[in-house]
Amino acid sequence: MDFNMKKLASDAGIFFTRAVQFTEEKFGQAEKTELDAHFENLLARADSTKNWTEKILRQTEVLLQPNPRPRCQFLANSARVEEFLYEKLDRKVPSRVTNGELLAQYMSEAANELGPETPYGKTLIKVGETEKRLGAAERDFIHSASINFLTPLRNFLEGDWRTISKERRILQNRRLDLDASKARLKKAKAAEAKAACEGDAVPDFQETRPRNYILSASASALWSDEVDKAEQELRVAQTEFDRQAEVTRLLLEGISSTHVNHLRCLQEFVESQATYYAQCYRHMLDLQKQLGRFPGTFVGNTEPASSPLSSASLATAAATIPVVPTVVGMSSTGEAAISLDDVAPPASGTRKARVLYDYEAGDSSELALLADELITVYSLPGMDPDWLIGERGNRKGKVPVTYLELLS
Predict the structure, then answer these.
(1) Relative orientation angle of helices 255-290 and 211-253, to the nearest 10 degrees
(2) The 3-state secondary structure of 188-202, one letter per residue
(3) Binning pLDDT at 50, 70 and 90, where does residue 260 land?
(4) What per-residue string of b and e applies to 168-177 under the rule 16 or more CB within 10 Å gives b?
(5) What is the pTM of this model?
(6) Do 42 and 255 form a contact (C-beta atoms < 8 A)?
(7) For labeling, which of 74, 110, 180, 353 is most exposed (least CB within 10 Å)?
(8) Beta bridge pairs of residue 351
(9) What dihedral angle (degrees, nearest 10) is formed by the CA atoms of 90, 93, 94, 98?
(10) For residues 343 and 336, is the Cβ–Cβ distance under 8 A?
(11) 359: left (phi over 0), alpha (psi -120 to 50) or beta
């Protein structure tokens, strides 16, 4: 390898000068160029963004791939390393079986061995099918969150932040060079002033050694040249520092754009998470209905089935629904002793509701629903708070509150 000794010596000298300047600043023996308050705020915001992005990224990975036990932690870490390698190689990550899908497989195998026609076997099959759907929904959620949320955060830490850190290190070196140039110029001017004072003294030509005056005049000229050289170096150092400060400032101000991008990614993450939980909720409601728990109970279970929503939230929702006055023939449970067609909307008005999920009517008293359609709803006295009366055109029937989004 061909070494450039002059460049190597020059770089070593610059490094030594910076080290001396940095050390003297730490001990308070040298002046330090301070950045303006706005620049310092930009630096602090950038550091805060980087730190919190790292924490959010790590915790989101834990959320998507929980590791409660040491072995699970090892497997989860291995999965993350595998995904990282596939991402760096720009290859698609192979599909991985989720915990829900694995549980579904075990339940199906257990049902086949224990008897698929027995009540327990049939229940295992039904629950296993639901767990399989939950596992598929979980895989879609993890994939969506990884692409729309985790990847942008990693790109910031591995791309933009590395560039910012590099430019900040260069700015730090330029500042050290600038302060070292200021210190060199200050020393040169002090030495020049001292030599000038000695040169201003009237020479005594009767002195046995008059050459001291000549040496003083020569030293004054040398220090004057040194001052000129130091001033030139200071101008160059100041120019390079100002240029680097502007480059770094522009990058730091770009953190605002990073926040906007992360905000959009966060919204997409929330949407994908909401979709995932909505799918899980819908699958579990369907399973409850198949098992006879929605809206009823298990056979032999004397405890009332718990509502998916809290009683407080249902009571709050029901309190805002217009109530039809007591109708002759209505039972205490809210079941109509007469046809629902004879029930008129309350005089106080009705409310609109948007259907969240498709719903298949269980009997003739219920109203089938389609996702995203708008219906009119109201309540009946003594009616189960889990249900409302829904109207769509000339059709009406009971609808579950959990499938609706009440509109103002």
Answers:
(1) 30
(2) HHHHHHHHHHHHHCC
(3) very high
(4) beebebbbbb
(5) 0.58
(6) yes
(7) 74
(8) 377
(9) 180
(10) yes
(11) beta
